[in-house]
C-alpha cells in the first residue's frame, strides 16, 4: 500500500491482505538499514488472524521516498503522520531496535495513538560503538558485515544471515547516502528514552533474544524498570540474537499476537 506524507511516497506492507483501518491495527517499525521485509512472517501471521497491518518502509528506505530522517524524534513525528494518512486512530505500535525507540517516542508524543507497545531488541541508551559508526561512514559494506555478524546467534542457519546481508546491501545500494550511518547515528544520539518511558501509560511488552549482542537484555534493565507495568518475553525456543524476527519467526509472531489480542481485539 502506498500513502503520501509531506509530498513523498510512504510504502507499507499489509501482510498480503487489503488494509482496512476499521480493523484493530498493528504497526511494525523496522530497525537500521532494514525495511518492511524483516516483518514478513509476522505481518502475515497478524493479518491472517484478522488484524490490519502496517509495516512501513521508513523514509529513504526500500520503497519509501524522501530523505532518510536523522533523529528518532523526526521519525516519531513521521509515524504519527503515517497513522493520520492511513486513517488509523489507535494501534499497537511494535518496533525493532531503532524502531523500538521510534514507537516509544511516538507513544510519548501522542499517547492517544498507542493502544500498547511491543519493543523488540530495545535498550536505552542505544549507544553505538565509535568503531562501528566510523566504519559505517567510511566503508558501509564492512559495517554491514559487522552488523550481520553481531545480529545473529552462533546457532543461526547461515542462510538467514546471508539473506539479512543481501537485504542491507540492496538498501545501501539504493541510497545516495551512507544510510546505515544515518540510522545508527540517530540511535546513538537519542536522549529522550527515559523521559518517554516514564510518560508511557499503555501496556508494554519487551521481546528479547537470549543471545542478542547488539542490544543485550542485561542492558535493557533501566528501560524495563522505568515502565513499571511492562512485561518481558524472552525468546528461548532457539538461541536467538538481535535478528529475532528471522531467527525465531513463530515465537516472535506469537508474542505479537498475544499482545495484539490482549489489547485491541
From TrEMBL:
Gene3D superfamilies registered for this protein in UniProt: alpha/beta hydrolase
Pfam family name, one: Abhydrolase_6
Domain named AB hydrolase-1: residues: 26-254
InterPro entries per UniProt: AB_hydrolase_1, AB_hydrolase_fold, AB_hydrolase_sf
Protein name as catalogued: Pimeloyl-ACP methyl ester carboxylesterase
GO CC annotation, single: membrane
Amino acid at each position: 500500500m502506498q500513502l503520501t506524507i509531506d509530498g513523498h511516497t510512504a510504502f507499507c506492507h499489509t501482510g498480503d491482505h487489503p488494509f482496512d483501518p476499521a480493523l484493530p491495527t498493528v504497526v511494525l517499525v523496522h530497525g537500521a538499514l532494514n525495511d518492511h521485509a524483516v516483518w514478513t512472517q509476522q505481518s502475515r501471521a497478524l493479518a491472517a488472524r484478522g488484524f490490519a497491518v502496517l509495516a512501513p518502509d521508513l523514509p529513504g528506505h526500500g520503497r519509501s521516498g524522501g530523505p532518510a530522517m536523522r533523529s528518532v524524534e523526526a521519525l516519531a513525528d513521521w509515524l504519527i503522520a503515517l497513522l493520520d494518512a492511513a486513517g488509523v486512530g489507535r494501534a499497537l505500535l511494535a518496533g525493532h531496535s531503532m524502531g523500538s525507540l521510534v514507537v516509544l517516542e511516538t507513544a510519548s508524543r501522542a499517547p492517544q495513538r498507542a493502544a500498547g507497545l511491543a519493543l523488540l531488541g530495545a535498550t536505552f541508551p542505544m549507544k553505538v560503538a565509535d568503531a562501528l559508526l566510523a566504519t559505517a561512514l567510511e566503508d558501509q559494506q564492512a559495517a554491514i558485515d559487522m552488523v550481520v555478524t553481531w545480529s545473529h546467534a552462533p546457532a543461526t542457519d547461515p542462510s538467514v544471515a546471508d539473506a539479512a546481508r543481501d537485504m542491507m546491501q540492496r538498501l545501501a545500494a539504493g541510497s545516495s547516502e551512507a544510510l546505515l550511518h544515518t540510522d545508527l547515528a540517530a540511535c546513538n544520539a537519542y536522549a529522550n528514552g527515559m523521559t518517554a518511558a516514564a510518560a508511557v501509560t499503555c501496556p508494554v511488552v519487551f521481546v528479547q533474544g537470549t543471545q542478542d549482542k547488539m542490544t543485550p537484555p542485561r542492558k535493557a534493565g533501566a528501560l524495563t524498570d522505568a515502565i513499571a507495568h511492562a512485561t518481558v518475553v524472552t525468546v528461548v525456543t532457539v538461541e536467538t540474537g538481535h535478528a529475532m524476527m528471522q531467527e525465531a519467526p513463530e515465537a516472535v509472531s506469537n508474542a505479537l499476537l498475544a499482545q495484539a489480542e490482549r489489547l485491541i481485539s
